[in-house]
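Board notes (copied after class):
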Amino acid sequence: AADLADGMTPEVIARFRKAILELRRKPNLSDELYKRMEQAYAKVLPGYGVKAKDVTGGVFFVIGPEKQFGLYEDYLKTVEGADTRVFRLYPRDFWMPPSIGDSVGKSTYTEDERHRLFQAVGITEDDSLIIEIARKIGIVDVDGTPNSEFQTFVEAHLEWGQKNKAWVLEHLLQKKAQEYVMSHK
């Protein structure tokens, strides 16, 4: 169904597959592909030809152990410049770990308002605003550490999201979510 929605009819797919099969008959295919490799790889692999800063709109990431990050960063400094850094992201960068005490502000919001703010602020991807709202709705301590209510709230939020899909969908864009948070915090 998704293929059809994207205009990928069975005929288009069949033509593509036949064209791929025909390519294998080309005697110098591997040589041609190898010639194109550096130019193609350079756009997605920093350090492989084109400088990352010269790729318009380029945002690059790698996944791996710390040793790999360190070695890759050292390599990139030799080819991209000494000021090159590979920033590390950890699971904790995407959510607040459970472990907090009590927080202030919860009583000023209804349960529904708390969930709306929590949902919208997550869409903003604004770390300081996320912490501010988490404090105000009472799920983190003053220092931003998740409190004893955090886990329960997050579990309840999943159910809230299912019941309020229309609201969630209406606030999926960052701008709309930001506007909601700023006018309701």
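Comment from the instructor: The longest helix spans residues 10-23. The CA atoms of residues 89 and 101 lie 26 Å apart.
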